[in-house]
Amino acid sequence: MNYIVFDLEWNQSPGGKKYSNSRLPFEIIEIGAVKMNEQREVVDVFQRLVKPQVYNWIHDSIHEVIHVDYKDLADGVPFQQAVREFLKWCGEEYVFCTWGNQDVMELQRNMKYYGMLSLLPGPVTYYDVQKIYGICHEEAGGRRSLEFAIDQMGIPKAQDFHRALTDARYTGDIFKTLEPAAVCVNSSIDVYQNPKNKKEEIFISYPTYDQYVSREFADKEKVMKDREVASTRCPVCHMPAKRRIRWFMNNSRAYESVSLCQKHGYIKGKVRIRHTDEDAYYAIKKLKRIEEKDAEEIREKRDSLRKKRQAKRQSEKLV
User: Which among 220, 222, 226, 221 has a CA at the least distance from the CA of 212?
Assistant: First the structure.
């Protein structure tokens, strides 16, 4: 199996959000990739400039970062051709690697726009090199820029950043340094092609937490009422944990809860509800062990939010 370490550059509406195409807010204008064998040695490279078909000029902020002129892109190939050539180059057995979690999703969104999503069945499993780098080098698993990681690892910066092939090469350089054991247990899954029914629902156990991705719901209000979505199982023994703090919505529009496993202590639950392009909804739930002090902080946050919302309702009644 090969590792396909790829990077995308994309453009957006030069006229701002008002003129953005809601089906394609980010249009891919460059694909760059390196192919690495199982020993993580580079065996081939891929690069294509993509001729824009949606946005006919480069957004000023994009131009400042990637230094590509529209006339250069005009000589590129259509996205349909570029992605077919890219997937053919990837071969039969491969796994994607990227710096961050956005490239895999944007690749699929661009493919969907052109009716090509069937060429890349999902959900797509990949390695988020940025996430794994954070796990290996920083206790909190923080997300750092690619340039920060390159500097920290003492890797020579032979070329400027923010071109697809160059960034793919640098990502590959970081990927080589990661411990194989840390890589294999920290894969990521992109759910742009989300589960549609109960049979397709996803359950994954990572070293520090469990993740669940639900089926689709037509009504957003029904998501948190679903038994599986609202359940809380210990990520260590996978037995039901007794709820100590019921699900509540926090400031970031996610739901949180705290439960207690008699063997393994406090469990934090977090649910984010996602909206699909087809106006359906699904949930992504994470269950993670926490300390008692963390549970108390969540309780205080819940109580504070509750008081603020009560005060807001009272003030609205007086108006």
Answer: 226
Residue among 80, 81, 21, 73 nearest 51 (CA): 73
Judge contact between 299 and 258, C-beta under 8 A.
Answer: yes
Residue 157 lies in a domain: yes
Nearest alpha carbon to residue 117 among 78, 94, 84, 90? 84
Residue 279, by phi and psi: left (phi above 0), alpha (psi -120 to 50) or beta?
left
Contact criterion met (CB below 8 Å) for 275 and 219:
no
Its domain, for residue 142, covers 2-184
Under the banding of pLDDT at 50, 70 and 90, the label for residue 159 is confident
Nearest-5° Cα angle at 73, 71 to 77: 135
Q: Are residues 123 and 213 in the same domain?
A: no
Lowest mean pLDDT among 11-25, 182-196, 206-220, 303-317: 303-317
Q: How far apart are CA 170 and CA 157, in angstroms?
A: 8
Q: How far apart are CA 244 and CA 261, in angstroms?
A: 10
Place of tokens 């970031």: 252
Is the pLDDT score of 141 beyond 70? no
pLDDT for the residue numbered 166: 96
Q: How many domains does the chain have?
A: 2
> Using one digit for the tens of pLDDT, what is the confidence trace for 186-198?
999 999 999 999 9
51, exposed or middle or buried, with CB in 10 Å at 0-12, 13-18, 19+? middle
Q: Tell me the residue type at 256.
A: E
CA end-to-end span of the chain: 65
Q: Which residues contact 6 (CB under 8 A, 6 or more apart)?
A: 31, 32, 33, 34, 46, 86, 96, 97, 98, 103, 164, 168
Do residues 259 and 269 touch, judged by C-beta distance below 8 A? Answer: yes
The residue among 195, 199, 207, 208 whose CA lies nearest residue 284 is: 195
